[in-house]
Amino acid sequence: MSSKSAFVLGASGMVGRQIAEVLMKNPAFSRIVLLGRRRVEIPDAPPHLEQQEIDFDNLDPQHFQGFDVGFCSLGVTTKAGKEKMQQVDHDYVVATAKLARENGATAFCLVTAAGSDPNATFWPFKIKGAAERDVAELGFEKFIVARPFLIEGPREEVSFGYRCSKLLLKPTSLFTTALLIDAQEIAKALISCTLDDARQGVQILSAAEMGKIAKQYKVEK
């Protein structure tokens, strides 16, 4: 297997951070670049991990040159408002994916949410669904979409809705398996899919599917 280069957008967030950490430990990737507004503290970062600060409102195409795959977990909560979510979850996502594709990336992974649909009536799902649609139209050889429902992992901010959902899911292990997923499992599932030659075109992954893929995740020495 030839070594790959990857960039990560959203490494300051829970899922993006896990993507970066799992990539760091996978020898299939010889170059990893974290792209963001600010640098992220990564203890014991390996030499092949780089960080570059970018301005999402004035993107430089040079930041997206020389990559095989891009990972994107950009997003804001609904509390930020419709306009801000449109800017981050759609506009920034599509703009960065477009530059990646124009500069030779063949694969792109995007973290959205269960229920994402460009025709949804609930605007957060509509925005995320539109982002999926518009990135799919860019023509990546491989476009992997992660649609988690509830994500487990360290959070800077825990919403009331998240706490309530956890309480409701706790007694029912069947539903918990189908709806709740750890951020590291999302990372492992996405990375596995980028390395799986059998996966081509647009792939939509539910929490249950990501959990199964993550369990089979192996690092080839």
Q: What name does CATH use for the topology?
A: Rossmann fold
Which outline best applies? globular
Number of helices: 7
CATH top level is: Alpha Beta
Poorly predicted segments: 158-169
Average the pLDDT over all residues and give the rounded result: 90
Strand content: 15-25%
Please give the largest β-sheet.
7 strands, parallel
SSE topology sketch:
Blueprint: E1 4-9, H1 14-24, E2 29-36, E3 49-53, E4 69-72, H2 82-102, E5 107-111, H3 123-136, E6 142-147, E7 150-152, H4 160-169, H5 173-179, E8 180-182, H6 183-195, E9 201-206, H7 207-215
Parallel strand pairs: 1-2, 1-4, 2-3, 4-5, 5-6, 6-9, 7-8
Helix pairs in contact: 1-6, 2-3, 6-7
